[in-house]
Design brief:
The longest helix is centred in the C-terminal third of the chain and has 28 residues. The chain has a single domain, classed as Farnesyl Diphosphate Synthase (Orthogonal Bundle). It is mainly α. The chain binds 3-methylbut-3-enyl trihydrogen diphosphate (2 copies) and magnesium ion (3 copies). The site of one magnesium ion (MG) has 3 residues, from loops.
Length: 295
């Protein structure tokens, strides 16, 4: 199966799963339609990382859908808040108006909150998941996700990202921003698949290091595309990192050198993954997609 087909199929499964889950609530809550607006579209790479990892450990895709759906809701929360006027001030996301442009700023803050909390609830209070994987693993997934989002993770990274605007930054600061704002949650999405599949501790450790490298590659590519890609293909407004003088590797090294660094990080990531005596066909293909993607 081609990786583009794997990603597309997973994106459909996740969108369908979440629509099915939230539609019954749409008569009682006006939050449902913006929640679905937030999760719709996008590449669904993090959900696919969860599914791909689980598959390598023999977990059926359908059993992981609530976890992958939760991961995408939480990712959507991060995008909705990232786009707010007080953050990156982006009007365009996934080829349509960003949440605050479509539903207003106050609603965008609340929809972000709802995506985060309801996303976590898809895992935490899910009796079916507990029956399938056991309470301990479900709790483990929640803990891994929360750690990845906290002070040492995404939120901490977003703070550093804002504090890094408009000033000179050292390369080491950029790596810290990348690892925290992007790498930590991307890694958590891989680890959730590994937890579900009872991966041995040593393999989890290797997957974690693979995830951090892949997260770095992911953000380098995002920053390169901000410079090189058109709005129609990107689905968001390009050229904004320069205008806002964001702390990116591209700012320090330029596009060409950043591409080289990304390629060598990717090679290291692939080497690490290959050190686990188990095939990871989809994970490897997603890793390639991360650095070759055009949007
Ligand atoms: C964008 O993530 C945010 C970053 C961490 C750079 P994606 O590029 O995965 O966004 P979608 O989900 O495909 O829209
Ligand atoms: C966002 O990084 C990282 C998040 C945690 C959301 P960016 O600000 O570069 O992401 P885009 O370019 O807006 O998608
Ligand atoms: Mg940002
Ligand atoms: Mg942004
Ligand atoms: Mg960006």
């Amino acid at each position: 199966m081609k990786i583009e087909d794997f990603l597309r199929e997973n994106a459909c499964l996740i969108d369908e799963y979440l629509q099915h889950h939230f539609s019954p609530l749409s008569t009682t809550s006006s939050l449902v339609s913006p929640i679905l607006y937030g999760v719709e579209g996008g590449k669904k790479i993090r959900a696919s990382l969860t599914l791909a990892t689980g598959l390598s450990y023999g977990v059926e895709k359908k059993h992981l859908l609530p976890v992958a759906g939760a991961i995408e809701m939480i990712h959507a929360f991060s995008l909705v808040h990232d786009d707010l006027p007080c953050m990156d001030n982006d009007d365009f996301r996934r080829g349509k108006p960003s949440m605050h442009r479509a539903f207003g700023e106050a609603m965008a803050v609340l929809v972000g909150d709802a995506l985060l909390v309801e996303g976590l609830r898809l895992i935490a209070g899910n009796e079916e998941l507990i029956k399938l994987f056991g309470e301990e693993k479900v709790l483990d997934m929640v803990s891994v996700i929360l750690k990845a989002l906290g002070i040492e993770g995404m939120v901490g990274g977003q703070v550093l990202d804002l504090e890094g605007e408009g000033r000179e930054v050292r390369e080491e600061e950029v790596w810290e921003i990348y690892r925290k704002k992007t790498g930590s949650f991307l890694t958590a999405s891989i680890l959730c698949g590994a937890i579900a599949g009872s991966a041995p501790p040593q393999e989890k450790e290797t997957l974690k290091n693979f995830g951090i490298l892949l997260g770095e590659c992911f953000q380098i590519k995002d920053d390169i595309l901000d410079v090189t890609q058109k709005k129609e293909v990107l689905g968001k407004t390009p050229g904004k990192d320069k205008i806002q003088d964001k702390a990116t590797l591209v700012k320090i090294k330029g596009v060409e050198e950043s591409e080289k660094i990304m390629k060598s990080k990717w090679e290291e990531a692939v080497r690490l993954l290959s050190s686990i005596p188990r095939p990871f066909p989809f994970l490897l293909e997603i890793a390639r997609f991360v650095i070759e993607r055009e949007y």
